[in-house]
Amino acid sequence: MIFKLLKLNIDVADAAFNELYPRRIKRLAARHWTPVAVAKFAAEYLVDKPHKRVLDIGSGAGKFCLVGAASTKGRFYGVEQRASLIKLSKKIANQYDVANVEFIHSNINEISFSDYEAFYFYNSFYENIDSSCPIDKAILPERELFYSYSKYVKEQLERTPIGTRLVTYWSNGEEIPDSFEQEYAAGGGLLIFWKKTS
Fold it and tell me: In this structure, what CATH number is given to the domain that contains residue 129?
């Protein structure tokens, strides 16, 4: 029902969407998973033409990709280093027949951005410098990873063609090349819409 509502452009509350997840994952939602309204807004900006390939940089439990795939005509790819979250995301996509989404078990520094046309980034590297709400104990915080991952994303984004769209949420801008210009912001400046101009 949730995905049918999204396809019909009917609002879905986060509390309702998060019921798709096990209790442990649901408890992390407020801190780690994109709110439904934010995901819809971001996805609609990123998918400016049908079949646009959108990469979620650190897809976590897959919420952004699942919402985006259900509410647009884009194709969404989520890359995530935790195998358990990939398994969960795939299970939900299969169970609810969300076809235009794919989840990739990999580290971001093994992904070439040239395979994608638009990008979403909800500061997935921040867990390496803030241990106040860990996703799990499988991956321990490592400050140097925050900087190396951010640098990799910045380098990859720099290689994208002019016109490439990017949305960041709760980002400090560490990963944004100077070739991207802010088009507008929402959510009190936390959600920023970018386009590559040079």
Answer: 3.40.50.150
